[in-house]
Design a protein that fits this description.
The complex is a heterodimer of chains A (917) and B (83).
Chain A (H helix, E strand, L loop, with lengths): L3 H27 L9 H8 L5 H14 L5 H11 L4 H12 L4 H8 L4 H35 L5 H4 L6 H17 L10 H28 L28 H17 L1 H9 L6 H18 L1 H11 L9 H8 L3 H41 L12 H25 L6 H13 L1 H10 L5 H28 L4 H5 L20 H23 L4 H11 L20 H12 L1 H14 L11 H15 L1 H12 L6 H76 L5 H32 L8 E3 L1 H19 L2 E5 L7 E3 L1 H17 L7 E9 L2 E8 L6 H4 L19 H11 L3 E6 L5 E8 L6 H13 L1
Parallel strand pairs in A: 2-4
Antiparallel strand pairs in A: 1-3, 4-5, 5-7, 6-7
Chain B lengths: L1 H19 L4 H12 L3 H31 L2 H10 L1
Helix pairs in contact in B: 1-3
Classes of the chains: A mainly alpha (917), B mainly alpha (83).
């Protein structure tokens, strides 16, 4: 049996080794030779602080109790890391850009640098980490007792405070953290010494666990009568829990929980996000860290099975890693296992204490001190000492809390249960964090509400029952509910009965959390700074780093003030170096620096690195006294609004365009319908027009065929009528063909420059005979000469003759008169034919020039003449109009444009073609 | 183009993993384990786990190489200086 003194000396020596390692690394880093430390391998190894003594000892315990579900604790992080390129890279990018120092700082930064939310996160973190630290102390103490006394007496019961091993463990850990975790207040929270120590410890625990595992797999033989192979493959043990199925609901819940924990646990956030020196390290960590976890759990099942076979069911399965080698007399192997567990515990406690002390000092203590009107801290010359003192006190406080929890809860035996309580507590950060980097709409109020709701439900459904069970008092609360209200039982809330308490709590806490976060975010409004930070976080990859942060201030600030402020927070040397480097990067001397927006924002970032964004802002605000929101911020917000407006405007325009198109289509459709009706009408009338001469031809032909006693004179008369009617038919068909041709654009115009007066005279002359025959006075009032127009002489004459013909034919006045005249109006020539006839009835005026035969077939002609006239005139780019004539007569006007330039003639045919189509 | 494919694969990996390591697959494999009397479930979990690690290793090392090619010239210059 190893003596207690020997083991304690060994543990002390191990801690001393860590001290030396951390010290040397810090020295090297200070001299700028931190090459090894900033390698991706060391980064990955430092992540393994996730594997605490809880997993070192507890995984085997979990396998022995609940079967394969121990693997979920590692599988969740594996999934997150295999997808590191997305969530984790974004978190790292954001944290580097905004100089994030802790998870509280991250959430506070995202929600408008709110001090309130940072304090809440810090409190939740402390509350959920305390049981976990207690767990580590307990693991170290019990493993030490097992190793030295051979049984796990509960030292807390048996001995006084100073005889309690855990007390000395806690004290030495506090010393280590205080020395290496708070040696300096850096511009960012990097602790190279600590990282090196953690990386070293990760190798120690892996080696120890694998050593025990290999021993179990290769060295332990079964001693049964019929089976003598490896113990862990003994068929007798095939029915033990490690080979059994586990509850699928609990399996899934734990997978989710561990995935959440790897980003939400304060210590994991510290090593994964804050301590990382290069974003590209994630690429290595994405597979190397899962590989480490795989190796770490490869032998869990064999050890658990061997433990159950060798040590027996009665023993504490959480200690199988120790008791299995001990039971076969391998004391040195057991010692190695103890060192492995001890190193898992120390690394966890160290990192958790650093992370929590940063949060407590930056987000709880300093804001309170800075705001206190009595202390007047902001006028103090040097705050570094105060800051360090606060941190050291916080570390003592955290370890004291953990120690007290350990003393109180020493009865509780399952390590894993306590660890899971902690995990669920940390998972409460998930909605605010992940929501914050993917959803712009999350507000500070929403996040606060979600965190508080989740935390309250967590306390009620998980923490309270665990305390009640440990204390042994008021157990009625669990079975009957508070005040006998059954639906409020902490582990069966709203009668969600017979669920595993962990799954139950996870469901209710996250439901309350997410619902509160989303609902309150939706009803509360975003403050400008929240909106800005929200868009910076969500669009982390779309912006150049640091380009966002230069802020314009209205206050006017001296460089000396800023320098003094920086000296007070980060120390004289650090401040000087930071300013010198900044000046160098701007290509200037320190003395030439101007307190412009960029410098102020630089100082704010430096301060944020040591006291958190919210406090840094408070301090810089005091000095710079500027506005809380800068020009750039306003511009960013405006940009976004502008984009939204622009998008809205485009949509509006699109819909307006669509509407216009629809309107056009509607109009086109109406027109088409009209044309269709007109066409039907036209066909109707034309067939009617054709019918009349056809009927008359047929009936006269019948008379000629059938009537025997017709005189020669009658026959000639009838044949004459048939001839005339067939002429009329031919004319009618010609006209229809003509009209159709013109419609199809086939009108062949021979355009020349001509004087329309000549054409008018000729037309009048041509119709003089007809007028005389009808007894109509035809007056030619056309001037001898008119401005030239571009026209086809024959076609123009056709139009004029048609008009004159109509005017003569339909004139039933007692002294019929037709007057042909012409005049110049502006750049147009107006040729008119007026009469004193009956005029055009109002009903006909609108359809006069349409392609419709006149109503009432008693008049001669097809009625298509005017339509043809219109087509011809329009092909000349002119127009034909009907105006009231003298008395009640009509007056037709043909308006033609004057020919201006010589080449106009050539441009017309194109116009004709388009007019015709 | 190749880079885009790679990032798409990298994005898919965790989801494939989650699909394989949650019910119904978990339930199916546990039932098989029980029926056969062999620890099939444990073997399945570790196989998936290892496959995820290997796939992650391949994808991320390729991404890294691609990143090296895409790196801005001044950085490459800097590396040559330090040689």
């Amino acid at each position: 049996m190893l003596t207690s003194g020997f083991v304690l000396t060994l543990a002390g020596g191990y801690l001393a080794l860590l001290f030396v390692l951390a010290f040397v690394t810090d020295r090297m880093a200070a001299r700028g030779r931190a090459g090894l430390i900033s390698s991706p391998i060391v980064y990955t190894l430092s992540l393994t602080v996730y594997c605490t003594s809880w997993t070192f000892f507890g995984a085997v315990g979990s396998a022995a109790r609940n079967g394969p579900e121990f693997a979920t604790i590692y599988l969740g992080p594996t999934l997150v890391f295999v997808g590191a390129w997305f969530l984790l890279r974004k978190l790292v990018r954001i944290s580097k850009t905004h100089r994030i120092t802790s998870i509280a700082d991250f959430i506070s930064s995202r929600y408008g640098k709110s001090t309130r939310i940072a304090a809440i996160v810090a409190l939740i973190a402390v509350a959920s980490t305390t049981p976990y630290i207690a767990l580590q102390l307990k693991a170290v103490a019990t493993s030490l007792d097992t190793l030295t006394i051979g049984r796990s007496v509960l030292t807390a019961e048996a001995q006084g405070l100073f005889d309690d091993t855990a007390f000395w463990v806690a004290a030495s850990m506090a010393a280590f953290v205080i020395i290496f975790g708070t040696r300096n207040i850096g511009a960012d929270e990097h602790h190279p010494g600590v990282v090196a120590a953690i990386a070293f410890e990760s190798l120690v625990k892996l080696a120890a666990f694998i050593a025990v595992g290999l021993f179990v797999v290769l060295g332990l033989k079964a001693t049964g009568a019929e089976y003598a192979g490896p113990l862990w493959l003994d068929p007798m043990l095939r029915e033990t829990p490690p080979f059994q199925a586990s509850d699928p609901a609990r399996w899934t819940a734990m997978l989710f929980l561990s995935a959440a924990a790897i980003v939400c646990l304060p210590r994991q956030f510290q090593v994964t996000i804050v301590e990382v020196t290069d974003e590209r390290h994630l690429k290595t960590a994405s597979w190397l860290f899962p590989l480490y976890m795989l190796l770490m759990s490869l032998f869990t099942v064999p050890i658990a099975v061997a433990g159950l076979g060798l040590v027996g069911d009665g023993a504490n399965p959480d200690l199988f890693v120790l008791t299995v080698p001990m039971s076969v007399g391998e004391e040195w192997l057991a010692l190695a296992a103890f060192i492995g567990g001890f190193s898992s515990a120390t690394s966890m406690v160290i990192v958790a204490c650093i992370a929590l002390s940063i949060m407590i000092s930056n987000h709880i203590v300093m804001p309170l001190l800075l705001r206190s009107p009595w202390l007047r801290l902001h006028e103090m010359s040097d705050l570094t000492g105060l800051l360090l003192a606060v941190r050291r006190l916080s570390i003592v406080l955290i370890l004291s809390l953990g120690f007290i929890y350990y003393r109180v809860s020493a009865h509780s035996d399952a390590l894993a249960a306590i660890g899971l309580i902690s995990f669920v507590g940390a998972a409460q950060f998930l909605p605010a964090m992940v929501g914050g980097v993917y959803w712009r709409g999350g507000t500070e109020r929403g996040a606060t509400a979600g965190l508080i709701a989740g935390f309250v439900v967590w306390t009620y459904t998980l923490l309270l029952p665990s305390i009640v069970r440990v204390g042994g008092a008021a157990t009625g609360l669990l079975t009957e509910g508070p005040f006998g209200l059954g639906f409020l039982r902490p582990e069966a809330l709203f009668h969600l009965d017979r669920w595993d308490p962990l799954v139950h709590a996870l469901f209710w806490t996250l439901t309350a959390n997410v619902v509160a976060y989303v609902a309150v975010s939706l009803v509360s409004t975003l403050k400008p700074l929240e909106q800005l930070q929200g868009s910076l976080f969500v669009d982390a990859f779309r912006r150049r780093p640091f380009a966002d942060a230069s802020r314009a201030w209205s206050g006017d600030t001296a460089v000396e003030d800023l320098m003094a402020l920086a000296r007070r927070i980060i120390g004289r040397d650090h401040a000087y170096r930071a300013f010198r480097d900044y000046a160098r990067s701007m290509g200037r001397d320190v003395r030439e620096l101007v307190a412009d927006a960029a410098l102020i924002s630089f100082v704010e970032r430096q301060l944020a690195g040591s006291i958190g964004a919210a406090s840094a802002r408070v301090l810089v605000l005091r000095i710079a006294g500027g506005e809380t929101i800068s020009l750039d911020e306003v511009i960013t917000i405006l940009d976004e609004t502008q984009q939204a407006i622009e998008y809205g405007r485009q949509l509006e325009q699109k819909s307006a365009e669509l509407e216009a198109t629809a309107e056009q289509l509607r109009r086109a459709n109406t027109q088409l319908k009209q044309i269709d009706t007109m066409k039907d009408d036209f066909l109707n009338r034309v067939s009617h027009e054709l019918r009349t001469p056809m009927t008359s031809i047929r009936s006269f032909a019948e008379v000629l065929l059938e009537e025997e006693g017709l005189t020669q004179e009658d026959r000639e008369r009838f044949v004459g009528i048939i001839h005339q009617e067939s002429l009329r038919l031919t004319r009618l068909l010609d006209e229809i063909l003509d009209l159709n041709r013109m419609d199809a654009g086939d009108l062949d115009l021979r355009l020349v420059r001509l004087d329309p007066a000549t054409t008018l005279h000729e037309s009048v002359a041509a119709m003089a005979g007809f007028a005389h025959q009808r007894g109509v006075t035809l007056e030619d009032a056309v001037p001898a000469k008119l401005p030239e127009v571009i026209a086809d002489a024959d076609r123009l004459k056709q139009v004029l003759i048609n008009l004159i013909h109509n005017a003569i034919k339909f004139n039933d006045a007692r002294e019929p008169e037709v007057r042909v005249s012409a005049e110049v109006s502006g750049r147009e020539v107006v040729l008119s034919v007026s009469d004193n006839g009956p005029g055009v009835p109002a009903a006909d005026q609108t359809v006069l020039f349409r392609k419709l035969p006149r109503r009432g077939g008693e008049r001669e002609g097809s009625g298509l003449g005017l339509a043809i006239c219109r087509q011809i005139v329009e092909a000349h780019r002119g127009r034909i109009e009907l105006r009231p004539g003298v008395g009640k007569g009509a007056r037709f006007e043909v308006v033609l444009p004057q020919a201006t330039t010589k080449n106009e003639a050539s441009s017309l045919p194109a116009a004709v073609a388009s007019a015709g189509s | 183009m190749r880079g885009r494919r790679l990032t798409e694969v990298a994005f898919l990996l965790p989801w494939i993993g989650a699909f394989l390591l949650t019910p119904p697959f978990v339930v199916i494999l546990q039932a098989w384990s029980e029926l056969s009397g062999l620890p099939l479930f444990i073997v399945y979990v570790f196989t998936c786990w290892m496959a995820l690690i290997v796939a992650g290793g391949v994808v991320y090392s390729r991404l890294d190489r691609l990143d090296g090619v895409d790196r801005p010239p001044e950085r490459r210059l800097g590396r040559r200086d330090s040689d």
